[in-house]
Structure formats: C-alpha cells, structure tokens
Amino acid sequence: MHSSVLQANNVTGRRIITIDGPAGAGKTTVSKALAKVLGCVYVDTGALYRGVAFEISRQQINWQETHLLERFLTSLELDFVMEGREPVLTSSGRDISAYIRTNEISMLASSTSAVPQVRKALLGIQKSIARERDAVFEGRDMGTAVFPNASYKFFLTADVKVRAQRRFEESNTPGISFNKILQDIVKRDADDTQRAISPLKPAQDAVFIDTTALDVSQVVEKMKRIIKIA
Hints:
Blueprint: E1 16-20, H1 27-38, E2 41-44, H2 45-59, H3 66-75, E3 78-83, E4 86-91, E5 94-95, H4 103-112, H5 116-132, E6 135-139, H6 142-146, E7 152-157, H7 160-170, H8 178-194, E8 207-210, H9 216-227
Helix pairs in contact: 1-9, 2-4, 2-5, 4-8, 7-8
C-alpha cells in the first residue's frame, strides 16, 4: 500500500481539520471549498474506502474470508495524485475516480469499511498525509478515531430526504430511483452509526453544522469564522 504523494501549497505547521458526517450532508463540496480557502490539501478518506470496494468488486474478492481479504489488501496500491489542483484516486497507477461513485460501490464501501483489516490498511495513508502537510480530512470518523487531536473538528448533517435528493441529483447510476437512494441512505446511516469499530458520531469537541437549509458558501463562512480566517 503506497503512501500518498500530494503536492500542497508551502504551508507551515501541520494544521489538521476534520469534517465528518453522514452521506449527502455536503462534506465533499464543503471540504474542497474550505481546503481551497486555506490553501492546503483536501483528502477524501471516503474515496479510499470506495477504492477498496471498487477493487473488491472488480477482482471479485470474497472479502468476508479473512485470509483472502488480507492477501488482497497486501497487493492493493491505492494512491492520491494531483491532476491540476485536484487530487485523484489511483489504483496501481490507474485513475479510478470515475468508477467509485456508483450506488453499488457506496453500499459495498459502507460494509467493508467496518472491517478492521481494511481500516488498518488505510490508516497509514491518512497519517502519512497529516505528517507531511496541512490538510482537510473528510470522512466519518476523522475527528473521533483517526485524528482525535485535530486542530478543528466539524460534523455536518442534514435532513435525510434532503441528503437523499442531493445524492439522487449527483448519482451516475442509470435508472436508480430517489426512493432507492433514500432507502440506501437510511440503511447506511444505521450501519455507520451502529458498527462496533469507529462508528459514525460527532467528536465531543466537534462543531455541529446542520446544512439542510444552507448552501456551500454559507457553511464555509461558518467554518472560516470558527477558524478565524479574515
């Protein structure tokens, strides 16, 4: 498993900002926008788990068999590389960004992300980035399990129907209905919050932001005021 190679602006210190929350809360868009304002790296940790899920699906790995999963993870080569100003996810050097956003991969990522071997394998990439540069980390347990000492922690949420609508509008899965996405989000919420290892929950010192009636710029402005950016 490679550590990531990401180029960032010449920043000093290692300011780590975590943005956690359920599917459709706006984490990705907000995280990208905030990282741009701060001039630091944006890290989509969910993409790493989706990358694992994509390769499990592509290679038809029986991931519930521990020895098969461990062998698969040992051979996996996920990496972030910069394409212009945007980091893209690669697997063995191949850009897989276009293949990891389907509903099927989302649901598989939710299931496999609870497996200890998967979480351990991806932890190294995340820690490596944090050691090297300032970054905004987006995920589900960034502020609780991965970076409990982060400089700033945020937890985004929104009404479940609003979150489903957002996912429906951005879905690239042909023929999928709004009701199917809503059902899947409700199930994923339950899976993520009830799993034994690193469940989805706000860190005790996280700033809670409900994005139901807010656009991206309004959420980023709230964060900027907390981080005290002029």
